[in-house]
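Q: I'm building a small set of examples for a reading group on sequence design. Run inverse folding on the following structure and report the sequence directly after it, with nothing in between.
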């Protein structure tokens, strides 16, 4: 059984248009347009690889920021730890607030915590601006 055309678009069209559509369909199915498909695939691959590179850089930046934040918290704890221990030891040990050593260690502890808070607020303000 012989048909006029292989494509749906060929119905109701002239014989020349149907032949052109059939030729295009057959060339696409046979793989003669593989060069164009390969170019599209290569361009798509380049775009995907570029996007992957950007995503990896962003992930590395987040890891770096997280590690710097963790290191700064550890440094603050190591620096403030002995001072806060001294304040707690003086207050728990039954020393009076009127003793100069207790007042100094309490003042130093409050000052250190205030300085750390000021540095954090200054960092947030610098990041937002």
């Amino acid at each position: 059984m012989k048909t006029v055309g292989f494509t749906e678009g060929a119905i109701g069209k002239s014989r020349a248009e149907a032949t052109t559509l059939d030729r295009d369909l057959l060339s696409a199915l046979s793989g003669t347009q593989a060069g164009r498909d390969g170019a599209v695939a290569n361009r798509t691959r380049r775009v995907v690889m570029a996007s992957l590179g950007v995503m990896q850089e962003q992930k590395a930046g987040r890891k770096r920021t997280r590690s710097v934040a963790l290191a700064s918290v550890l440094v603050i704890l190591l620096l403030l730890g002995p001072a806060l221990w001294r304040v707690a030891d003086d207050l728990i040990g039954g020393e009076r607030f009127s003793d100069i050593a207790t007042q100094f260690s309490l003042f130093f502890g409050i000052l250190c915590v205030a300085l750390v808070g000021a540095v954090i607020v200054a960092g947030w303000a610098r990041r937002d601006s």
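The helical segments are 15-30, 34-92, 100-128.
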